[in-house]
Structure formats: C-alpha cells, structure tokens
Amino acid sequence: ALFPQVSQRTMYATLPLIGIYTVALSVLTNSIAMRLRFKSRELERIAMMDPLLDIANRRLLEKRIDHELHKLRQTCSDSALMFIDIDNFKEVNDRFGHKVGDTLLVTVSKILHVASRNTDTPARLGGDEFVILLPNTSPEEALVVATRIMDATAAMTVAQDTSFRCTLSIGIANATEDMETTTDWLKAADVALY
C-alpha cells in the first residue's frame, strides 16, 4: 500500500499558492456575479421596453399605473392618464408603406418623450396607441402637456407629402377614488379619447 506523505517544508511552500488560488477564485466569482447582475438588469429593461420605439411597453406601464393608484389611495393628490391615438394610421401604412408608418411611430414616441417630464411614463400600448402616465398632475397641467404634443405633431410632415398631416386624438382621465385597477383608469382615458 502507498501512503503519500507531505513534508512540512512542502506544505509551507504551497500555502501561498493556496492563498492565491482562493483570492483568484473569489475575484473570478465576484466578476461573474457582477456580469450576471448587469445582464439581469439589462434583460429586465428590455422586457419592459418597446423594441422599435425605446419607450415603455404595456407591461411597464401597467406596473407604474398600479403603483400610482396604490399611492393615490394613501394621498389626496391628482394624477392623470393620457390616451393617445394616431389618426388615420392605417392610411399612412397603406399609402406610404410600413417603413414610413414605423418612422411615424418613432417620431411620435420622441415627441411624447420631449413633451413629458422625467416623472411621467410615456408608453406604447400597441399598434398606434400610446399612453402617458402623469403623476401629481392636475387636469389643467395635463391639458398643457396635451397641447404641447398636439402642436409638435401638427408641425410634422409624413413622407415629404406636405398635403398629408399627422393628427392625434387625445383623451385625459384623472384618477378617481372608485378606480380600483389599471384597467379602470385605462378605460376612463380611452372613453375620454372618444
């Protein structure tokens, strides 16, 4: 039978290597953990954003609306929800093509970003429907934001055709005590649109 033995001298000589190995393993593990956290945050951000427009998607919007409704139950402040629809969007796609339609969506998205504040959440519900959550906003302040959006959109041309103008329909609904869900508030803003 073989009984391997390690001399005391060999053991002391390998201690620094064991220490270096432990430190290197720790650094490597920490680096991997940091990259995983970064990738996880990046994936979460991607899951909450519209891929074409770099604007919040319905998932993030509903999360923020739900949070705002919860907050409003505890405080007595105003908050508004703005429902925005691009008029004749189907006609733009039919007349100028989907590439121009996509460019129009991107431009409207940029207008919403510029017209809203850092605390607001502009989002795309789908198709040509957008929503902006306006926390701590009175009906009068929401109307000012809507006017800025309408003015910016009126100055826009579609595909070098100066005869065709892009217009929007906007509905604004302030939160009320009887609104219990995200759907209630979205429905009220949608009704205000029509």
What does this structure look like?
The chain is of the alpha+beta class and 194 residues long. 57% of the residues lie in helices and 19% in strands. The protein contains six helices and eight strands, in the order H-E-E-H-E-H-H-E-E-H-E-E-E-H. The strands form three sheets. A four-stranded antiparallel β-sheet has the order 4-5-3-8, with helices on both faces. The protein starts with 7 loop residues before the first helix and ends with a helix.
Gyration radius (Cα, Å) is 27 Å
Biggest β-sheet: strands ordered side by side in the sheet: 4-5-3-8
Q: Low-confidence parts lasting 5 or more residues at pLDDT below 50?
A: none
Please give the alpha-carbon distance between the first and last residues. Answer: 91 Å
CA-based shape: elongated
Fraction in helix: 55-70%
Structural class: alpha+beta
Largest sheet: 4 strands, antiparallel
Mean pLDDT: 87
Order of helices and strands: HEEHEHHEEHEEEH
Strand content: 15-25%
**Total DSSP E strands:** 8
Q: Treating each run of at least 4 consecutive H or I residues as one helix, how many helices? A: 6
Detail the topology: elements first, then pairings.
Elements: H1 8-47, E1 49-50, E2 55-56, H2 58-74, E3 80-86, H3 89-96, H4 98-115, E4 121-126, E5 129-134, H5 139-154, E6 157-158, E7 161-165, E8 168-174, H6 182-193
Antiparallel strand pairs: 1-2, 3-5, 3-8, 4-5, 6-7
Keywords for this entry:
57% helix, alpha+beta, two-stranded antiparallel ribbon, 194 residues, elongated
Can you give me a brief rundown of this structure?
The protein is an alpha+beta fold.
